[in-house]
Fold this sequence. Notes:
- There is one protein chain.
- By secondary structure, the protein is of the alpha+beta class.
- The chain has helices at residues 3-19, 29-33, 41-56, 71-83, 85-93, 118-140, 149-170, 172-185, 192-216, 220-231, 238-248, 250-268, 272-293, 300-324, 329-342, 346-378, 382-396, 402-414, 433-447, 530-548, 670-684, and strands at residues 464-467, 482-483, 495-498, 507-514, 555-559, 577-584, 607-609, 625-626, 639-642, 650-654, 657-659, 693-698, 712-713, 715-720.
- Helix content is 49%, strand content 8%.
- It has a six-stranded antiparallel β-sheet with strand order 7-9-8-10-14-12. The protein has a four-stranded antiparallel β-sheet with strand order 2-4-6-5, with helices on one face.
Amino acid sequence: MVDSERAVIDETTTGLLEAAGPQMYRRNSFRITGLTTTADRRTVRQRQQRITPALELGVDVDLGHSLPVRLDDVRGAFDRILGDPRRRLVDELFWLWDGDGDANSKNGTSTRTCACPATLHHDHDAAVRAHSAALDLEVENDALSSSGRTLAEASQHWSDASRLWGQVLRRAVFWDHVRHRIAELDDRQLDESVIDTLRDTLPTTLVKPLIELAAAASTPADRSRLAVYARAWPLVSTSTVDDQLEDAAGPHYESLRATAKRASSQLEGGNWDGAAAETYDHALPALARLEAMVPYARHRRTASARNDIAVLLNNCATAAIDGLGPAANLNASKWFRTAGELATDPVTQQTIKTNRDGLRDMMATFTQIRTQVDQLVAAGRIHMARTLLLSVKSQLAGGPGSEEIDRMLAGLRVQPGAYTPRRGGGVRALAWAVLLALGVLFAFWASGLFDGDDGDSGSAPSSGVAVVAAAEITDNSPVGSCIEQEADWEVGEREVDVVPCDDAHWGEVVAYVPLVDTESRFLTAQYPGIDQAVALSRFRCERALAEFRPDDTVMTVKYSTPPEENWDPSGPTLDEYTTCVAHRRDNQSMRAADRISVDSTAFATSVPMATFAANIWDNAPVGSCVESKADLTVTTADLPIVPCDEPHWAEIVGYPVLYEDPGASKWPGDKAVYARAKAACEDRTQGLLTSDLRLHVTYPAEDWWDGQDRPVYAMCALSYAADNTFTGGWR
């Protein structure tokens, strides 16, 4: 290639680069000046001499369009048409060839001077109009994905533009037209090499506006939508588009890297809470912006960024546990869960899983220690409780959990006989050797803890009175108390009369279950309302029974519901619990075979529940999860419901009330009810919905208006669009 040819190609490429972008049609010289693309130099100069002086004097000039242009814009447009044939040719390609609607067209007739078939000009101009209209809508409307009708209009324009440009660029007569225009312009700067350059670069020039729009979009939905359009653009490989999207996302990657660096610095300084807060407040939103445009499944750089954030959160959790022991459980569990969802490297995934399992083992061990200490104190064996705690402390040797043991010992010293448990709340691996030794030590203690002459004073009272609704869950009598008759069980009463379980009795206290966990963003310490408080209590107790008696058709369970004053969002969450009492479905006296052995192995199992019952409180609670795939608009009863920390297909995220008093109004119609239900569910999931998620909306039919004296509601759930099984609630 000689230097003159290279110069022509470079200038042509420069012209294409200047044209590319969301403003490519708005900056087009012919659109700005109102000239036809076939205007000769004389016509151009005449229009320039007529328009420019008027604009300089501030006269309002009709340019044939309503674009906001300045004098400099008009001057620059005339200069490109008259002074640079290569950039004029580029602008010709991106504007109307037949000049319909331009200021210089005569009575709307064609100004065509070439021998091209009429269909070529028609199709080319249709492509320009569709592409220009799509870009105008994107530029003029922020968050277009939420604008309904405008979004549908834009989607149609993008579809038409993609299809028509693909058809036009594949036609040989298109390039014949370019040759004709080169001959008409008759400039030595234009030759056949320009056609080769245009053929190679026009498709990527046309897709470039989508790349830039995706990078600048303000919402994940718009970023994802525009990236999808770009990958579907004709004559451009998806790998090329992916490379360009990744380049355009460069500032987002840098922002994420800077945030991760700040968080790492805080962690190195011992501030794991600050590091985690920085990650949740800034790194995860930045990662969400990347995921919408350059998802990790397609882009290694995004996958690597996800894994780096996973490592950071894992290290925050391990540092917290090393520093606080069991007191770190609430935050560390959350951080491990998020880290596990983000990790893309198998080694990182396995390390996080090992750490998370280790934390659960540690918490289980400390729970057992607290239980045994409680029982020893209740039995008056303060010395044995102190000896146990000192032995555990010796084994820990200052490791994780030592402060918790010291607090237990201090509790024994401050209030002998009235101990109160505490309430509150590269990839690092936890040092589990100390905890393993702790587990072995505790197994030794548990095996002979009550050997002696005092009897089993830590078991449930065999007769008399049992405490089943104390202010704190830990102040209740142990599970296993037996209630003689249903009339003795009064929901909310602190105490209940009990009898020996060998005697005839109606029910057994089988569990005290906290209602709030950290798996779902929809379960917090805020009072959820009576409907959800009842639904939560029912689910927790039915689950507790099912763990010991799976698929049982004889036994059922009653439950208590904590009052609103027990839900304190500023304090610990142990007040928010339910007491579960198992009894026969027929309410007859329990037989030997009916007894619930709460010391036996528990089975993880689902609970069959409704998701669209007549009353909201009869449904699976918000923040619980549907274990396996189902059509939630059809199958609404006996769905397998599990806690969200177990593998599942979808999460129940809301039951928004649509009509408080349906009896006061007529049936609004199917479309109106669905639109109201969908809008309510989208409001509940605001900030969560992305292209890889599916929103399930179950809404009421006309028969819900037939004299029903109750509010009418919808059901909202979220799942992956690909129906993936996952663990943990939506964040």
